Backbone:
């Protein structure tokens, strides 16, 4: 169990909805030995990986995770100290007017919606749970502004409960690159990871994958040359790396299996245009004026 009195930082964007055409995507192949090796390498690389949002208890982590949507870990951690110093618990926060909270969370972006969700969540905690954060998935996702990712963060970090796998932008990106999923919907990605990982690794694997995504497997320029997962990664771009030796992702395998499209027939060449006859040259104008046209000189 990871204690809640540890201060950390993090970026945890909100869940998204199903994308078009995703329902027809194939499930990733099950390879327990490969998953075990990936988990082993991640554990050796990031043994102390944990949630990276500053918090002292479940309530603070719940608020911070809601504020972290579409924001950055460092930015949220500059906002929450003053917020919690002024309103330290759900009861205090529930009594606040939204217009008073909005300036406090303005820097995190989407501040009106976030303030609305945080206040509604705090009031729901007071009304339904006596101001305490519940330790059940069904109770957490029933709170305003809380989806499975946020609930998994709180359950895993503060209660040590592995009810699912945290799927943020880093887990999404790395799961796809490593060939663990073909989906983009966080709920479907979570289902794929849960099916391939032992339950006792659901919390630690996600935390380590997030750390790896922040420190090595960057979105735009992944550091494949120093990545310990490169030999097992189909997306690794390292000189001398044999992509064929690494397990192919289902999406890539499906694309490779499609027959190549036949080349389009060449268009017939257009006939050459007949050149137009040249126009006859115009006669040259005389350059010498007749003598009678000379001007008379005036008297001296």
Residues:
């Amino acid at each position: 169990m990871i204690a809640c009195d540890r201060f950390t930082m993090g970026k945890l964007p909100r869940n998204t909805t199903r994308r078009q055409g995703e329902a027809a995507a194939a499930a990733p192949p099950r390879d327990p030995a490969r998953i075990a090796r990936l988990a082993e390498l991640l554990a050796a690389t990031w043994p102390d990986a944990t949630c990276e949002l500053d918090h002292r208890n479940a309530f603070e982590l719940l608020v911070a995770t809601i504020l972290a949507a579409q924001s950055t870990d460092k930015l949220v951690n500059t906002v929450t100290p003053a917020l919690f110093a002024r309103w330290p618990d759900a009861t205090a926060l529930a009594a606040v007017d939204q217009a008073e909270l909005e300036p406090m969370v303005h820097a995190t972006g989407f501040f009106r919606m976030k303030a609305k969700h945080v206040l509604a969540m705090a009031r729901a905690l007071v009304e339904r749970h006596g101001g305490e954060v519940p330790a059940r998935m069904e109770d957490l996702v029933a709170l305003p502004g809380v989806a499975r990712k946020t609930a998994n963060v709180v359950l895993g970090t503060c209660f040590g409960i592995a009810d699912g796998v945290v799927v943020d932008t880093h887990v999404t990106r790395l799961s796809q690159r490593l060939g663990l999923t073909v989906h983009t919907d966080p709920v479907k990605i979570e289902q794929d990871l849960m099916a391939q990982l032992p339950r006792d690794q659901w919390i630690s694997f996600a935390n380590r994958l997030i750390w790896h995504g922040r420190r090595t497997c960057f979105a735009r320029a992944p550091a494949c040359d120093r990545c310990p997962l490169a030999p097992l990664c189909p997306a690794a771009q390292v000189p001398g790396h044999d992509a064929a030796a690494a397990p192919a992702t289902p999406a890539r395998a499906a694309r490779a299996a499609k027959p190549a499209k036949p080349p389009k027939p060449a268009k017939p060449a257009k006939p050459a245009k007949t050149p137009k006859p040249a126009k006859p040259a115009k006669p040259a104008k005389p350059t010498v004026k007749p003598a009678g046209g000379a001007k008379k000189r005036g008297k001296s």
